[in-house]
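lol ok so funny story. i was supposed to be doing the assay writeup but got distracted and ended up predicting the structure for this chain instead. priorities right. anyway since i did it might as well share w the group, maybe its usefull for someone
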Amino acid sequence: MPQSVMGAFFAGERRLVLKRFEQSTPGPLDVVIQVKAAGVCGSDLHQYLGRWSQPQYAPGHEIAGLVTDVGASVTHVAPGDRVCVEPFIYCGSCCYCRAGRYFMCPDMGFLSLTHHGGFAQEVIAPAYGVYRLPDTLSLETGALAEPCAVAVHAVRLAQVNPADAVLVLGAGIIGLMAVAAARHFGAQNVYISARHPHQAQAALQLGADGVLSTDPDQLSRELKECLPEGPDVVMEAVGSFAGTFQQAIDLAGKLARVVLVGGNTQPMEGIDLEPVIMKELVLYGSGCYSQIGTRRDFEIAIEMLAADPARFEALVTHRFGLCDIQQAFETALDKKASGALKVMVTDA
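and the output, tada:
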């Protein structure tokens, strides 16, 4: 029988409301999870502000919690297990799914967009997207596996290796995770641009060699001092609204790889591609996460978090109950005043 649960829903620009909804009936390959931690993502904020369309489902896709029930065909998790959730829903049989790139599945669904997400008392997820958490990880840190996997995917696309100097543009949570992921894959040097002091401090704790200005002219001067030949990899983690796509191309060294990770919230007009040709750059678009080779980005992200959980626990700066989700979103929006890195909606 469907169960009534409480969840948060968008109700116009900068407005969220709580209401009860009837949860769907779990299938034989589904897992029912009591949500204990759900992070507020930059994409959630775009929807909150009306830059992106607001879904009819409860949002929230950075999810961790406790398994309360499993379908008859689920064997890898059981009630009581601590888990995090990869929020994709996909067919598993198309050419993209068979290649491990299920992000491209034509029938793709997503918790928070096509099904109810984690800003609710419980979530129902397909078993293939549910991962048991190591005992070393708290549930809050486990919820960071989703943004961490975004960064892991971008670093893997760029094939970051010990010979590389990496520049990350933007010190939001994805940019910070990109620093950690680049270090995890052995980058020789990692630099990041950061707007706020608390972001700079977090970047250094996650392994950045240095923090650079976000002012374009000053950033260019500082980068030349650090890396006279330019970076081998540039990871753009701000988004199209800031003009940093062009900046990533311009700052890249010769023969560099440029990865565009930031969200596209408006059309990119007037992009000059001459540096791409003259420096023989390789451009990667990095939409989310999936499987490259035999390993899923989510698996690597969980390993990263579990290897040194204390470094990542510090990224969770604010916690709010579901009843205070409006305040959670406003806190995440005003990073300068609040000092927020990751705002988490929790069930303590």
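DSSP finds 13 helices and 19 strands in the chain. The two ends are 27 Å apart (CA to CA).
back to the writeup now i swear
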